[in-house]
Amino acid sequence: MCKRTVRLRVGIRLVLALLIHGFVDQTPPVSSVYHGIVGESPQMAEIFTRIDKVAVGDVNVCIHGESGTGKELIARAIHYASPRRDRPLITLDCTTIPEGLMESHLFGHVKGAFTGATEHREGVFALAHTGSLFIDELGELSSALQAKLLRVIQTREFSKVGGTKPIRTDIRLITATNKDLKAAVAQGLFREDLYYRVAVFMIKVPALRERPDDIPRLVDHFLRRFAGLYGKRITKVAPATLERMLELPWPGNIRQLENFLEQAVVLAEGDTLTDRDLFAGDFSSVAGPTLSGLFEAGLPLSEVERRHILRTLHKALGNRTEAARLLQISVRCLQYKLKAYGRDIDGAAGSGLGLVPSQQYLRS
Predict the structure, then answer these.
(1) How far is CA 298 from CA 240, 284, 287, 312, in A?
(2) Is 349 helix (H, G, I), strand (E, B) or coil?
(3) For a Cys staple, 65 with which of 69, 154, 171, 194, CB 3.0–4.6 Å?
(4) Terminal Cα-to-Cα distance of the chain (whole angstroms)
(5) Which has more pLDDT, 349 or 179?
(6) Which DSSP letter does residue 353 get?
(7) Residue 172 near residue 156 (C-beta atoms within 8 A)
C-alpha cells in the first residue's frame, strides 16, 4: 500500500473522529442496552448481534480476547439481557486466586476440611445458583480442576471440599480467556472435552488496534466520566493529539486507553487535552520506538525539564523521595516543581501501562 493511500485513510478517519469529537456535549449518552459497551464499528456491531442471539437461552458462552478488551462487560451484557437478569451474576477471576484455594472458591468447603477452614463457606457455584457464573481467564485452571469443572457441567452437581453430599446447581456458565484454547488443547494444556463444553458459543473480541474507528467515541466517553469525577471542564482532545492516538497500537487495549485518559485529565489545565497532557510520561510501551522520543528539537528547556521530571517520577512508581534521589535534587525542590506543574493534589488516576505517572503519583 502506497504512502499516499495510507495518509488518505488516516485523514478520512481523523475527519470522522473530529466530527464526533467537536460535538461532545451534544452526543447522546452511551446506551445501557449492552451494559455500557462503547462502539459502533462493524466488529462491535457483530458482537452486539451475537449478544442478542445468545442471551435468550442458557447455552454456555466463551469470550476470547486480549486483556483489556472488555470481556467482562460482554459477560455482563449477556447476563442482563437474559431471562436470569434478576438473579445473581457471580464473577471468579482465576488469576487472582492461589491454586491451592481455587477448588474451595469454586465449590465451597465444610468446616475442618483443611487447616484454616474454621467455618462453612459457599463457593461460586452455590452463590450463582439460578443466575449466571462468569469464570474469567479459564485457561489458568489446573488440569485437576478442569476435570472437576467438566464433571459439574455434565452432571449439574458438585460437592464441597471435605463434604460428601452432592449439591444441585442451576447456573448459566460464561467464561473468558485471553489464551487460544484450541492451541492449548493441541499442546495438551487444556482438556478437549472441557473445551467443547464451555465453548458451545464463542465470541471473539477484537483488540482496540483492530477497531480504531471506535477510539473517538471511547475518548468522549472517558472524558465525560473523568471530567465529572475530577471537576474538570475538559470536553475534547486537540486534533493533532487525537490523530496521534489513532495511530498508536494500544497493547493494553481499552483498559490502557482509559487509564491513559484518566491520568491526562488529572494533569490537564485547560479544556482541551493536548500532547502536553497526554504524552507527559513514558509512553514507549504504547507508542513503540518510532514515537517514543519526547525531547524533539526546538522544545523550550523548561518543557524538557518538566517532561524529564514526570518520566522519572513515573519510573519511581510515584515515590517522591526515590524520584528526587534519581534526579539528584531535594524532595522539597521536587515538590516545588510538581506544584508548579499543577500536580499538588491528594489523589491521582489509575496505574496504566507505562503511560504517564501511576496512581501512586503523589506518594511521598
Answers:
(1) 18, 21, 21, 21
(2) coil
(3) 69
(4) 51
(5) 179
(6) S
(7) no
| Spatial contact of 273 and 237, defined as CB atoms under 8 Å apart | yes
Q: How far apart are CA 52 and CA 175, in angstroms?
A: 17
CB 12 within 8 A of CB 212: no
User: Please, is 103 exposed, middle or buried when counting C-beta atoms within 10 Å of its C-beta (0-12, 13-18, 19+)?
Assistant: buried
d(CA 125, CA 123): 6
CB 360 within 8 A of CB 317: yes
At 11, the pLDDT band (50, 70, 90 cuts) reads low
What pLDDT does residue 225 have? Answer: 92
- What's the sign of the alpha-carbon dihedral 218, 220, 225, 229? positive
Write down all domains in the chain, each with its CATH number in brackets: 42-208 (3.40.50.300), 209-340 (1.10.8.60)
Higher pLDDT, 301 or 297: 301
- Percent helix, strand, coil in the chain (nearest 5)? 50, 10, 40
pLDDT of residue 266: 84
Band (pLDDT 50/70/90 cuts) for residue 13 is low
Report the range of poorest mean pLDDT among 104-118, 160-174, 340-354: 340-354
CB 134 within 8 A of CB 176: yes
User: Would you state the pLDDT for residue 235?
Assistant: 87
| 3-class DSSP assignment, residue 62 | strand
Distance between CA atoms of residues 123 and 105, nearest Å: 5
CA distances to 45, 94, 113, 147, 163 from 109, in Å: 43, 18, 6, 18, 7
